[in-house]
Amino acid sequence: MTKSQATENRSNALLHSKKSKNCAGATFVEALIALAIFAVFTTGSFKVLVARRNIMDMSRDRYIASNIAKNRLELVRTFDFDQIPQLAESPVRIDNSGIPAAEGKFLRETDITTLNTNLLQLAISVKILNRRNLTFDGPEEVLNTYVSKHL
């Protein structure tokens, strides 16, 4: 090996060593940037999943509230016309099945108004428990109908 080849090999080794140090720093910065992008993407995805879950829960609660009101109406239809006014109820807390429960997620009220001797107006409202503040100030399903006496 000649002196010029040895000098060239040393300068190549020194140059390679500097490139290696520069690459290591760049790799670390690239990894940090990739990690930050991943964190932003993951956070955004999580927020979308939580919002989707909340919408699904709210939709399910509205569906249950609607069915509770329909079931109450069907119960009213099984009674004689003269007994229906006795089914009026002040707000009562109920569970998913429409059964009174102290910890129920729904608040049902049945209002029966006599319009004349042969006609009643029924208003069945079912309020849904607000999950954030645990009050019944959230959405409400209302079912209004008329019941007449068969002559």
List the helices and strands and how they pair.
Layout: H1 3-77, E1 89-94, E2 106-116, E3 119-128, E4 140-148
Antiparallel strand pairs: 1-2, 2-3, 3-4
Overview of this structure, please?
This protein has 151 residues and is α+β, with helices and mostly antiparallel strands. Helices cover 50% and strands 24% of the residues. The protein has one domain (3-148). It has one helix spanning 3-77; strands at 89-94, 106-116, 119-128, 140-148. Strands 1-2-3-4 form a four-stranded antiparallel β-sheet, with helices on one face. A hairpin with a 2-residue loop joins strand 2 (106-116) and strand 3. The termini are far apart.
**Unreliable stretches, pLDDT < 50, 5 or more residues?**
none
How much of the polypeptide forms β-strand, as a percent range? 15-25%
Instruction: Tell me, rounded to a whole number, the average pLDDT.
Output: 85
Report Rg.
Answer: 35 Å
N-to-C order of helices and strands: HEEEE
Helix proportion? 40-55%
* Order of strands, widest sheet: 1-2-3-4
Number of strands: 4
> Distance between the terminal alpha carbons, to the nearest Å?
122 Å
In terms of structural class, how would the helical and strand content be classed? alpha+beta
Tally of helical segments: 1
Shape descriptor = rod-shaped
The main pleated sheet reads as: 4 strands, antiparallel
Number of spatially distinct domains: 1
